[in-house]
Write a structure and sequence with these properties.
The complex is a heterodimer of chains A (about 160) and B (about 150). Chain A has about 160 residues and is α+β, with helices and mostly antiparallel strands. Chain A is about 35% helix and about 25% strand. The longest helix of chain A has 15 residues. Chain A is elongated, with a radius of gyration of 20 Å. Chain B has two domains: about 45 residues, no CATH class; about 80 residues, Alpha-Beta Plaits, CATH 3.30.70.3460. In chain B, strands 3-4-2-5 form a four-stranded antiparallel sheet, with helices on one face. Chain B is elongated and about 55 Å long. In chain B, about 30% of the residues are buried. Classes of the chains: A alpha+beta (about 160), B alpha+beta (about 150). Chains A and B meet through helix 2, helix 3, strand 1, helix 4 and strand 3 of A and helix 1, helix 2, helix 3, strand 1 and strand 2 of B. Strand 3 of chain A pairs antiparallel with strand 6 of chain B.
Chain lengths: ~160, ~150
Amino acid sequence: MSPESPIDEIDRQIILATQSGLPLEPQPYHAVARLVGVSPEEVMARMRRMLETGMIRRIGAVPNHYALGYKANGMTVWDVPDEKVDELGARVGALDFVSHCYQRPRHLPEWPYNFFAMVHGHDKPEVEAQVCQIASLLGEADRGHEILYSTRILKKTGLRIGG
Amino acid sequence: MDELDRAIINDLQGGFPISEHPFAEVAARFNIAEQELIARIASLLENKVLSRFGPMYHAERMGGSLSLAAMKIPAEDFERVVGIVNAMPEVAHNYARDHILSMWFVLATETSQAHAEALKKIERETGYAVYDMPKIKEYFVGLQLKA
């Protein structure tokens, strides 16, 4: 971690012990505590604090989209005027089929898109209907868009910090 | 995967308790034994219905750097580049997409310097330019998919 890092060594050890998953045993936080060498109460208190501060987004299950039947996963990319992207980003992010939504830099001339919204459907027509909804929400601010479907998951390990 | 598995997946996307016996708490909501819940989660992970179970850390809030990057890789050279990119521990996710920018990966590093070094290493070893697309703003993260 960098010097200005908001976490200390014990947090870091907890992250290392849990980033690939929570132990599948009746008292998982006790198992983490044994690995880290602190009390279970301390592990739980620190993880609660990390949840509150947003360091942990959530604790739970991440499904494989494909396995749940969401076979069309589209990264939709949009060229939206810079001065409008914040307002429109918040509105697109609120749509119930958008899982992630970001402003990113353009790489002109070949990549004019500055706004990304990930959408998930059971098939391509469902995704295309979702894209129409986003396009109508954006109106004239939609100066061009594309859907990039994933054709293969090459790697999906989640985030890791080094030991 | 049966109806109970689906219900468990939907429930667990919404969160998991931090407590003395968290599996027992969740199992009670489904009227099953703690060990059955644990066995079902283990089997969903093994069958890759779940890709992860546990805390999802927010890289930037830990002081780290997280970025999306893309590369324009010709089909005939794709597998070689997959090997190089996937071998890097900094690469958390990597997807093939149907676009001239055909490879899209997420790079997670502890510092912005490590990020820049990882990108340079990928460019050097693959011979292709990396289009770095770090997020400028995050508007939303966190949809739950219905199982």
